[in-house]
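Technical annex, item 7. During the second reporting period the consortium partners agreed on a shared format for inverse folding records so that results from different sites could be compared directly. Each record opens with the tokenized structure and is followed by the designed sequence. A conforming record, contributed by the partner at site C, is shown below for reference.
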């Protein structure tokens, strides 16, 4: 036909009707690239021949942990979590009616993460006090071997190959040195880090009465403690949410009662806030999660309301003959501040509130003492300071509650480590709230706890310890209105008498389960507090000790070669 092209078709003859021969299915990827722990991994196994699509599977051996094989793509993907050599067989199957398969075995090497020393700061040590810190690293292949490659440790300390710095430092100074960590891979990897440790003498000078702080629950209805109190703790029901329940109307009655008590006894007074009146809270947090009985633990809607309260309070109590102490917030990590906000928003809001409070106090009452927010553990405070929390504070504070007095020592040492990272290692460390708390201790255990608690706090260079509380039936009670002062309250008065005005010449240290702390006073006086955490045992005192005092106020003569000691400290003189 005109306008049409001719087409020639080739038709198979009857003899050519045999099945079409498919090309052979085969895996073409010869090997897989190496990976590294914690690093994203992506590699594809390829094939040719047969009829697509292909289906992939692992038919023997394990993939490295953290990796998977895509069944439709042949892609090995994921983030490895274990190092080593991993051999496994991958099979591909095509989509033919009579499917072909092909298998190949791969060996995938996963290298350990780069070796890195993670310890960046060390706790301060104290002369003649046992010291132990374990260095940490990550990456490489464990176990690690540690050594000093330059500089020197404090005299009396040594570094084990397992990474433990331990011993009893003998000389006060700051020591800088470089440590090396070597892993167990072949060939081995190593890395170094420069560290420093400051060895201090025990708390310098005579022990002040201010070491013995006290919180009191009922300030008007119950009498003032019958023991010596060197500093008054924060009051009950005296925070902003209580004082300004109606905007612009301040009820100072309860805070005045605490202030007047401190003034009458010639001691300092502390204020620490942990509530915002509900009328002032930001609308996003004005809910049952953050608020109760008209008081909230959340960010303000208008920072000017907070500024007005702080200004009114500081102006009210300044220049009235009482040393005012302001803790910038009470336990922000425990009170679930800003429930519903992101963690960073929480830290930012706390920084805003405490910065405003700090700046106003510094300008209005330069003689006031400002304390960092009280921490319960260091994690929250790490984020607080990283987020810009003020470091212009006169002391760093924490709260501690334990059933065994000695258990607080690692906690205090951890604070010392973190104070270095915060740039606050030169500031005093205070415990502004502590006791056995709600622990169920016998009367004898409570007596022992009180004395050991104060002896060990001063030995660990904690310069104030506010007992919580004199008259609280739930937390550390030393007195009640029915039976009066408890044996533990008498012990508080006795250990205060042992310590105030003395110098701790030998920090508290343990020989096995027996602890001793040495004291001197002018005129050649020497004394030794001693106890055994395991219970009753015999102790042979040095010949210069001729008598001892107990925590009931009794004095006994030493008449034999040994005396009986136990969990309750006695004072040899």
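Designed sequence (site C submission):
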């Amino acid at each position: 036909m005109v306008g049409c092209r001719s087409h020639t078709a080739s038709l198979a003859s009857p003899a050519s009707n045999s099945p079409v021969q498919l090309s052979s299915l085969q895996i073409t990827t010869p090997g897989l690239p190496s990976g590294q722990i914690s690093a994203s991994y992506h590699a594809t196994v390829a094939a040719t021949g047969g009829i697509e699509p292909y289906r992939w599977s692992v038919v023997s051996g394990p993939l490295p942990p953290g990796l998977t094989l895509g069944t439709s793509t042949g892609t090995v993907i994921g983030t490895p979590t274990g190092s080593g050599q991993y051999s496994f067989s991958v099979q591909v199957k095509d989509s033919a009616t009579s499917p072909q398969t092909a298998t190949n075995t791969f060996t995938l090497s996963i290298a350990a993460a780069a070796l890195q020393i993670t310890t960046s700061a060390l706790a301060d040590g104290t002369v003649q006090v046992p010291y132990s810190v374990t260095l940490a690293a990550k990456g490489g292949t464990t176990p690690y071997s540690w050594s000093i490659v330059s500089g020197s440790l404090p005299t009396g300390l040594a570094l084990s190959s397992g990474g433990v710095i331990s011993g009893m430092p003998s000389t006060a100074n700051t020591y800088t040195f470089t440590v090396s960590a070597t892993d167990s891979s072949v060939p081995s990897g190593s890395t170094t880090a420069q560290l420093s440790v400051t060895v201090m003498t025990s708390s310098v000078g005579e022990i002040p009465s201010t070491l013995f702080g006290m919180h009191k629950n009922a300030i008007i209805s119950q009498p003032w403690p019958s023991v010596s109190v060197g500093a008054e703790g924060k009051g009950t029901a005296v925070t902003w949410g209580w004082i300004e329940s109606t905007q612009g109307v301040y009820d100072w009655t309860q805070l005045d009662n605490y202030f007047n008590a401190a003034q009458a006894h010639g001691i300092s007074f502390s204020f620490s806030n942990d509530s915002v009146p509900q009328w002032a809270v930001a609308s996003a947090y004005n809910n049952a999660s953050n608020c109760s009985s008209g008081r909230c633990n959340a960010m303000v809607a208008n920072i000017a309301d907070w500024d007005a309260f702080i200004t009114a309070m500081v102006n009210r109590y300044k220049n009235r003959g009482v040393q005012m102490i302001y803790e910038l917030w009470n336990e922000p990590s425990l009170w679930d501040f800003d429930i519903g906000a992101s963690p960073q928003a929480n830290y930012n809001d706390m920084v805003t509130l405490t910065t405003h409070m700090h700046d106003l106090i510094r300008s209005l009452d330069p003689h006031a003492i400002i304390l960092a927010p009280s921490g319960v553990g260091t994690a929250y405070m790490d984020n607080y300071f990283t987020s810009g929390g003020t470091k212009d504070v006169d002391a760093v504070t924490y709260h501690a509650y334990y059933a065994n007095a000695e258990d607080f020592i690692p906690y205090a040492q951890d604070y010392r480590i973190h104070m270095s990272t915060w740039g606050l290692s030169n500031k005093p460390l205070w415990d502004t709230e502590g006791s056995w708390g709600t622990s169920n201790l016998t009367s004898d255990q409570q007596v022992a706890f009180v004395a050991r608690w104060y002896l060990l706090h001063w030995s660990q260079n904690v310069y104030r310890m506010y007992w919580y509380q004199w008259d609280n039936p739930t937390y550390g009670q030393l007195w009640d209105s029915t039976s009066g002062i408890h044996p533990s309250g008498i012990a508080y008065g006795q250990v205060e008498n042992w310590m105030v005005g003395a110098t701790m010449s030998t920090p508290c240290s343990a020989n096995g389960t027996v602890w001793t702390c040495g004291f001197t006073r002018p005129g050649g006086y020497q004394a030794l507090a001693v106890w055994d955490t395991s219970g009753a045992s015999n102790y042979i005192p040095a010949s210069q000790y001729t008598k001892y005092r107990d925590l009931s106020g009794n004095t006994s003569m030493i008449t034999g070669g040994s005396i009986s000691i136990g969990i309750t400290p006695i004072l040899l003189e």
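Residues 343-364 form the longest helix (22 residues). Residues 1-16 have pLDDT under 50 and may be disordered. All partners now use this format for quarterly exchanges.
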